[in-house]
Amino acid sequence: MPYLSQVDALVVKASQYMAEAKLRRDNWPFCGSALARALEHAVCAVFMAWDEPYKASSKMHRHFDERLAPLIDPAIPPVVRWVWDHEGNGKPEGAEQLLVGCEQVIDALSELAANPAPGGWQALPIPEPVGWERLSEPERSFLRAALQAARQGCPGVRLLLFGSRAAGLAHADSDYDVLFIFPDEFPGIAYGQSIGRAVELATRQGIELDAPSISEGVWLAPTAADRPLIRRIRACHVEVRDQ
């Protein structure tokens, strides 16, 4: 889970979506959706590089408008917002120009991600965790079941809830961000079986589960690559209990 190297991975993913959009430019619903995902990943790369670990999702729309748009070339935000507002619906008359514009936006955002945050930039403060008892009963019920499912694959695995649900800021349809911490002796190649059981459970219940994973050793002594995310999870998490 090297989150600094994830900056490059996000930029690459944005470029891949951009390439798909260009390849399928005549299939506008697909093309427009690919552009939206490309921009989400490019924006996410900037925040990740500036020490705010996120995953690429529609959350980027709000963060971009509120915090990033004022810092960049004013020609960029209208392109980004148009793509996100339409999500592939309503092919524009200047589709080719929009493709060129989006490619320019991704290049500009990639350049931002490759450089330090501007002077005066501050990462959002890390909220206080709500604690296990203040989670709702449906949240606790799902998390207990997810822990039990994961332990069928690895008895010693720990689950830490983080993100908006741990901070008490989630909406009813918010996903569950859960860090899986595996014993050092458990082989990394086998992580998937344990995580897969929990993800399968979530899928059956119509729940979106984001499940990064690390070893206990990395949790206790994170590498420079892991440190940004782990620092934030340590400050705001709820350990999942089995009862």
Structure description:
This protein has 243 residues and is of the alpha/beta class. It has two domains: 5-113, Nucleotidyltransferases  domain 2 (Four Helix Bundle (Hemerythrin (Met), subunit A)), CATH 1.20.120.330; 132-239, Beta Polymerase, domain 2 (2-Layer Sandwich), CATH 3.30.460. The chain is built from nine helices and five strands, in the order H-H-H-H-H-H-E-E-H-E-E-H-H-E. Strands 1, 2, 3, 4 and 5 form a five-stranded mixed beta sheet that branches. Helix 2 runs parallel beside helix 5 and helix 6 (137-153) runs antiparallel to helix 7. It is globular, with a radius of gyration of 19 Å.
What keywords describe this structure?
243 residues, alpha/beta, Four Helix Bundle (Hemerythrin (Met), subunit A), Beta Polymerase, domain 2, 9 helices, 8% strand
Helix/strand layout:
Blueprint lengths: L4 H19 L4 H22 L9 H10 L7 H11 L8 H19 L23 H17 L4 E5 L13 E7 L8 H14 L4 E2 L2 E3 H5 L6 H9 L1 E3 L4
Parallel strand pairs: 2-3, 2-4
Antiparallel strand pairs: 1-2, 1-5
Helix pairs in contact: 1-2, 1-5, 2-4, 2-5, 6-7
Give a short summary of the structure.
By secondary structure, the chain is α/β, with parallel strands linked by helices.
